[in-house]
Amino acid sequence: MDPMFLMNNLWIMIAFILVILMQGGFILLEAGSTRMKNAGHIAGKTIFTLGIVSLVFWAVGYGFIYGESAGGFIGLSDFFFGDFTTMFDGLAGSVDFIFQLAFAAIALTVAFGGFAERAKLSAYIVFAVLFSAFVYPVVAHWIWGSGWIGGLGKQDFAGSTVVHLTGAMAAMAATMLLKPRIGKYNKDGSPNELAGHNQVFTALGVLLLWVGWFGFNAGSTLGVDDAFFGFVALNTQLAAAAGAVAALLIAWASLGKADVPTMLNGALAGLVAITASCAFVDPWAAVVIGIIGGLLVYYSMKFFEKMGIDDPIFALSVHGAAGVWGTLSTGFFATPELAEMNGGQAGLFYGGGFAQLGVQLISVVACGLFAFIASYVLLLITKSLIGGLRVSEEEEIMGLDISEHGSYGYPENVQPQSNKVNTGA
Amino acid sequence: MKFSPSFEEGALLPPSFDSYQAIKKARENESNKVAGDPEQLNDAHDRWVLETTALAVHRLESERGQVPAHFTFFVMGSSGRKEQALWSDQDHGIIFDGKDDFYQDYFLSLGQEIREGMAIVGYPRCEGKVMASHPRWCHGIHEWRQQVDEWLEKDKWETFRHLLTFIDSRVLIGEEKLLANIKEHVFLKVSSDPRLLERLAQNTSYLHKGTNAFGKLLPEEKGPYTGSLHIKDVGFFPYVHAMRLLAIKEGLHDTSTLQRMEKTVDKYSFVKGKIENFKAMLDLRASFWKYHQTYEDVHYVPVDRLTKEQKKTLKAAVKEGKHLFQQTRKLVESGEGLW
Q1: CB distance A254–B213 less than 8 Å?
Q2: At what angle do helices A228-255 and A199-217 cross, to 10 degrees?
Q3: Which residues of B touch A257 (CB under 8 A)?
Q4: What is the CATH number of the domain that holds B10?
Q5: How far apart are CA B170 and CA A255, in angstroms?
Q6: Structural domain of residue B173, as residue ranges?
Q7: How many angstroms away from the CA of A309 is the closest CA of chain B?
Q8: Three-state SS for B173?
Q9: Nearest residue on chain B to A186, judged by CA atoms?
Q10: Is A187 in the B-facing interface, judged by CB distances under 8 Å?
Q11: Residue B8: pLDDT over 80
Q12: Which residues of A touch B227 (CB under 8 A)?
């Protein structure tokens, strides 16, 4: 066997494992950012929806993305993937398949950020199927398959748009339909702090995601040729670092407090932003992209909260706002050499004019709109199928651990809220 | 509202009201007239608490017989400093002329009666239990001195906090000399040990940030007071803490921050100009009295309702307060002029 072929496949298997481990990061991040009474539910739903997305991706998702394109809109072959002889992108088909599956799972988990602490378990199940079949694969086909945006020369190396923006738009549709959590806003519209129960979990979650991101971005090289994955990893590290520092400094300067959740979101925003551009920009630009991502996430968090949109895990800011910025950033910073190597054209700051920026903008608008509208419609369908997306007021107050699963993530530490309320019933 | 005039001289006379509810009603009737003027409001608070205390004494005497010893009932906190807003919680204590073994039980009962009476009149119980109903704040003169010594010897954050609370005490009923005696004892102790004042300064050294790096006021971002500035923590406390330290250093019995500033301004140049800032904040808070419905409300001023000029004044006051505290701390840490 060709050693290079073997190395490439081994590298992508490692990358797949890293990306799957990011689900562990999301468990810690989400559970830590929400209240104790929902911790077990959040951890559990992440695992079983990983199961759902895996099955759906195997059945139809991969085929919709990489199957024979129907007019650049959707693929229509290669369903129920399973031929061990196939080859794709110089990899064993199964290796490529499983790596792509992990990305679909990340997009779904991002989308579920908008569900946190108030969506029915059945809403998770139904929407996991619908999103994995009809939202993510469409956008992925447009950009990474043989779709119409890919044909324009769109630069999205590892998925700022495909994975993060798509997930964030679904999260936005969900959070708008679900409405804010009980107690998030006062009657006059002023927000309350519904603090997460464990900042250590949140920080560990971010660290785990950060590590996993090397599989996400560097793995997207799909091979070990020239060890280009090292350059991608370098840009990834720099952007994450710059995002964390920038977010901490802006929060400190503006609020007078070095807010930990904002700093953590800054690191994630840097990672999300560099995801599109990691193979197209110089390291100094990665730092700038990370800094802007970190600043952007701070203002975005404030903006959504002011708009009355309750985004418990900050998915809209971290994955949405930073996803948009990351996608646009190659339109500014892509170097001619790297663009030639990885596709598309040089950015505005390298004499490429507005051409690449225009492509990036079109893709953000088209994919963002599609993901939002499709998710909104699918959520309305879900709502009608299961009789409402949101748990009852009593269930929300007692927590989803007990109301949806019958046991607490922290049985010794959580008292059923409903028991404390003497309703006279 | 009719008050017993002699209470202002510290004498114990029969109460003018026959129920706490009646005092509460009288308070409600009068408060609107004085709420906008910090000085008048604090005089009124004194009268309402005096009447409540007089009624409490009267009720306890009818149950347990005459007060067994001379005593001093004093107030602390913002009441002690005469810096109360429209709503205020309870902070008070008792010193009696005699031994704990003989009289503390009686005076603790008096403290409990006062506590319950004040709660009815509209002064919430102190969450930290700084009330004459608690044995820590109700002692004979000898035990008070002992307790102060213990507080200083223990050298704990909590015990120093108790001492700082006590330093703001002001007599409302009874003989001034009982309280003055204990305070003199504190001043003597502190002046004889250079380390103590520094330790006291450390106890209140945390300052809440009032402005951000861009010079903007920092109102609450979340919760029911979104958009409002916690003027107590951000505005008043740096002045209060600084001037309390200077009062201890100088052996001043005055409790109001303004009086303390007036008494020290000639000696310490960094106090100059701060009196106007503090007054401006008292007036600013009083001007929002109509928005103050609860005890928690009085700690906030809505930044979005401030005029440009008021914002400027508040920013300057916050900045100057920080400067005042930093200079005071520096002075205390340097030991200059102390020993």
Answers
A1: yes
A2: 150
A3: 209
A4: 3.30.460
A5: 37
A6: 5-192
A7: 14
A8: strand
A9: B224
A10: no
A11: no
A12: 190
β-pairing verdict for B300-302 and B228-230: antiparallel
Q: What is the DSSP string of A242-280?
A: HHHHHHHHHHHHHHSS--HHHHHHHHHHHHHHHHHHTTT
| Rounded Cα distance, A242 and A216, in Å | 19
Among B210, B213, B226, select the one facing A190 at the smallest CB separation: B226
From chain A residues 229-258, the ones with a CB under 8 A of any chain B CB are 252-257
End residue of a domain, out of B149, B173, B192: B192
Tokens of B170: 């002001």
A350: Cα separation from own chain's centroid = 29
Domain annotation covers residue A88 = yes
CATH code of the domain containing A400: 1.10.3430.10
**Total domain count, chain A:** 1
What residues of B are in contact with residue A253 (Cβ under 8 Å)?
212-214
Asked if B19 and B145 sit in the same domain, the reply is yes
> Dihedrals φ, ψ of B50, to 5°?
-60, -50
Q: How confident is the model at residue B9 (pLDDT cuts 50, 70, 90)?
A: very low
Residues from chain B that touch A190, judged by Cβ atoms under 8 A, are 222-224, 226-227
Torsion of CA A161, A166, A167, A173, to 10 degrees: 140
Confidence of residue B336 (pLDDT cuts 50, 70, 90): low
Residue B339 included in any domain = no
Q: In chain B, what percentage of residues exceed pLDDT 70? A: 95
Q: What is the pLDDT of residues A175-220, one digit of tens each?
A: 999 999 999 999 989 999 999 999 999 999 999 999 999 999 999 9
Q: Indicate whether A373 pLDDT > 70.
A: yes
Residue A423 lies in a domain: no
Query: Is residue B4 pLDDT above 70, yes or no?
Result: no
Chain B residues whose CB is inside 8 A of the A191 CB are: 221-223, 226
Look at residues B192, B213, B247 and tell me which one is the last residue of a structural domain.
Answer: B192
| CA separation for the pair A66, A74 (Å, rounded) | 8
CB A117 within 8 A of CB A196: no
Average pLDDT on B158-179 reads 94
Question: Rounded to whole angstroms, how far apart are CA atoms A40 and A402?
Answer: 9
pLDDT in tens, B226-238: 999 999 999 999 9
Answer yes or no: do B17 and B100 share one domain.
Answer: yes
Distance of alpha carbon A368 from alpha carbon B58, whole angstroms: 76
Residue A71 belongs to domain spanning:
3-417
With residues binned 3-state (H G I as helix, E B as strand, rest as coil), the percentages for chain B, rounded to 5, are 60, 10, 30
Q: By percentage, how much of chain A surpasses pLDDT 70?
A: 97
Instruction: State the distance between the two ends of chain A, measured CA to CA, in whole angstroms.
Output: 73
Q: What is the mean pLDDT of residues A270-278?
A: 97
Given B209, B222, B223, which is nearest A256 (Cβ)? B209
Whether B331 has a pLDDT exceeding 50, the answer reads yes
Chain A's closest residue to B222, CA to CA, is A192
Q: Quick one: DSSP state of residue A281?
A: S
**Alpha carbons A208 and A201: distance in angstroms, whole number:** 10
Contacts of B210 in chain A (CB under 8 A): 256
Query: Tell me, what DSSP letter sits at residue B298?
Result: G
CB-nearest to B226 from A191, A252, A255 is A191
Chain segment B49-102, per-residue pLDDT in tens: 999 999 999 999 999 999 999 999 999 999 999 999 999 999 999 999 999 999
DSSP letter, residue A180:
P
